[in-house]
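Posting for a labmate who doesn't have an account.
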Amino acid sequence: MRVIGGKYKGKRFVPPTNFPSRPTTDFAKEALFNIIENRYDLEDLSVLDLFSGTGSIGMEFLSRGAKNVLSIDNHFVSFKFLKNTQESLSDKNWQVRKQDAIRYLEQTPVKFDIIFADPPYEMKGTSELPEIIFSRNLLNKDGLLIIEHGRENDFKKMAQFKEIRNYGGVNFSFFE
């Protein structure tokens, strides 16, 4: 896994062989950040990275100058990798938390400019993420929710849905 843009560009991190998640491909990540950087000045943004896994997306936001990034993952191996990576970067703008992502959303009073969620593709309840986030008003004005998902999820009928982008087996649904 490597960071593809910003101040940490080219930095590589190697997850352990028993890692429980699949990192977003560099191709999909690059396309995603092209979209985001055309819409936002990342230096002013507060980002929530849910189901963080390797932390690849959170690190990209951080590398590209996000004001702060909070990465949340409940899996012990993922959290341990995230914590070790965070410590190696020593970036004061990155926080890592071991917690259930849904429980976090249901309890937090904090609002974000961008919420990125990459739940396991087979996870039940993925389709409820936008409802939880928008009913709790967890996005700041002009905020963006991005959900990475497989082909089986279809969010097009939701009021806040704006678009979907497909990059091979990776889909990004955008909500405002």
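Reply:
Got it, the structure tokens are right above this. The chain has five helices and seven strands.
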